[in-house]
């Protein structure tokens, strides 16, 4: 039997991994291919990985309709740094009579000679190189008798996904990422990298929301991520916001229904639901009304509004007293924060429409 071995962090698995695996499977006439997620990469010891259980689950979702693909938990169950020679010894002992093909990216070729026991590895398995660029280290390829695949070069990368380009993941993997809040902080900070102060505010709002949630026995995790993502769309211009809304089927150019001050909260909710693919309705709703509120509010709606207005980083006379009040008397604190926000806007000369006035009147009374 001809068996492909495909190791890597798969943090997370993406369409490029699947295309490469399928290409190798067909070109090498393999009988099966085994994905081997690493515990820790020896060349990336300081890199933060999603938990191995999550990375394994994402691989399972990605290959569930591909019976010729399998997963091995050898490296993740063993833990520690994953060294290829140990993995190769394990599989050679497990499949002593089979032909093993070890798949690796061309970016690994220049440092292949630095791998521990590389001579042993190259004798026990057939090294197979897939191209990640058109630059190939032919010296090491020849030295270790590697097969070089003439595969298409794919743009997908795990790094790109962790930066927010979630379209590169299979749909079910994207949904798993969103519903388990994977890579949330990394994605948020990349999206807002041009506005680090905004990213910092989001983190501060998240932390305050989580602490406040505990005082009212609300799920602190949900509150945290509502705070983290509440301003995710703040970077968008008006035209970009309306284009984004239009893409998802809203009548975005109706400025009466969607005035400018509502855009970032609506776009933020759309991003969480349709890009990050989180399905928590309360979280999505809270983000969608976090500046304007509504005539009907639940606990999370109030938590997020409060956190946005008085978290650490907000500095105005009386803010500390408001923080203390919301922690000791949630409802009274919410009314006080709302009243402060109302007075602040009135003093700025802002005129409220009838909808906003009705909301303020209901919740301040």
TrEMBL record:
GO biological process: NAD+ biosynthetic process
Record key words, sorted: ATP-binding, Hydrolase, Iron, Metal-binding, NAD, Nucleotide-binding, Nucleotidyltransferase, Pyridine nucleotide biosynthesis, Transferase
Catalyses which reaction(s): P(1),P(4)-bis(5'-adenosyl) tetraphosphate + H2O = 2 ADP + 2 H(+); nicotinate beta-D-ribonucleotide + ATP + H(+) = deamido-NAD(+) + diphosphate
InterPro entries associated with the record: Cyt_trans-like, HD/PDEase_dom, HD_domain, NadD/NMNAT, Rossmann-like_a/b/a_fold, YqeK
EC class name: transferase
HD/PDEase domain mapped to chain residues: 194-322
Listed CDD domains: HDc, NMNAT
Recorded metabolic or biological pathway in which this protein acts: Cofactor biosynthesis; NAD(+) biosynthesis; deamido-NAD(+) from nicotinate D-ribonucleotide: step 1/1
Pfam family of the protein (one): HD
KW Cytoplasm (keyword) present: no
SMART domains per record: HDc
A Gene Ontology molecular function term of the record: bis(5'-nucleosyl)-tetraphosphatase (symmetrical) activity
Keyword Metal-binding: yes
Record's function text: Catalyzes the reversible adenylation of nicotinate mononucleotide (NaMN) to nicotinic acid adenine dinucleotide (NaAD).
Entry's family note: Belongs to the NadD family.
Protein name according to UniProt: Probable nicotinate-nucleotide adenylyltransferase
Gene name of the encoded protein: nadD
């Amino acid at each position: 039997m001809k068996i492909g071995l495909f190791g890597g962090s798969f943090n997370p698995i993406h369409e490029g991994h699947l295309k490469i695996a399928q290409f190798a499977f067909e070109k090498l006439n393999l009988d099966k291919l085994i994905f081997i997620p690493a515990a820790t990469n020896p060349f990336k010891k300081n890199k933060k990985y999603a938990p191995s259980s999550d990375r394994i689950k994402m691989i399972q979702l990605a290959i569930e309709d591909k019976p010729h693909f399998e997963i091995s938990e050898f490296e993740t169950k063993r833990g520690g740094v994953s060294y290829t020679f140990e993995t190769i010894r394990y599989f050679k002992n497990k499949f002593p009579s089979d032909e093993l093909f070890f798949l690796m990216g061309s970016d690994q070729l220049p440092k292949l000679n630095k791998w521990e026991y590389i001579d042993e590895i190259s004798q026990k398995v057939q090294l197979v190189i897939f191209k990640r660029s058109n630059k190939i280290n032919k010296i090491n390829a020849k030295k270790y008798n590697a097969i070089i695949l003439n595969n298409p070069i794919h743009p997908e990368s795990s790094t790109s996904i962790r930066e927010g380009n979630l379209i590169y993941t299979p749909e079910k993997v994207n949904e798993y990422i969103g519903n388990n809040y994977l890579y949330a902080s990394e994605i948020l900070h990349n999206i807002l990298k041009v506005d680090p102060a905004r990213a910092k505010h989001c983190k501060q709002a998240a932390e305050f929301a989580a602490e406040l949630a505990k005082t009212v026995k609300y799920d602190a995790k949900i509150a945290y991520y509502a705070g983290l993502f509440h301003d995710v769309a703040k970077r968008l211009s008006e035209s970009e916001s309306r284009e984004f809304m239009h893409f998802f089927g809203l009548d975005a150019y109706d400025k009466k229904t969607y005035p400018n001050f509502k855009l970032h909260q609506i776009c933020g909710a759309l991003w969480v639901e349709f890009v990050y693919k989180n399905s928590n309705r309360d979280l999505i709703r809270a983000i969608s009304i976090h500046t304007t509120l509504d005539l009907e509010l639940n606990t999370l709606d109030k938590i997020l509004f409060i956190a946005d207005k008085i978290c650490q980083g907000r500095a105005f006379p009386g803010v500390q007293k408001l923080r203390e009040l919301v922690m000791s008397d949630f409802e009274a604190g919410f009314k006080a924060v709302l009243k402060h926000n109302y007075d602040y806007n009135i003093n700025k000369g802002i005129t409220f429409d009838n909808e906003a006035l009705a909301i303020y009147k209901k919740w301040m009374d």
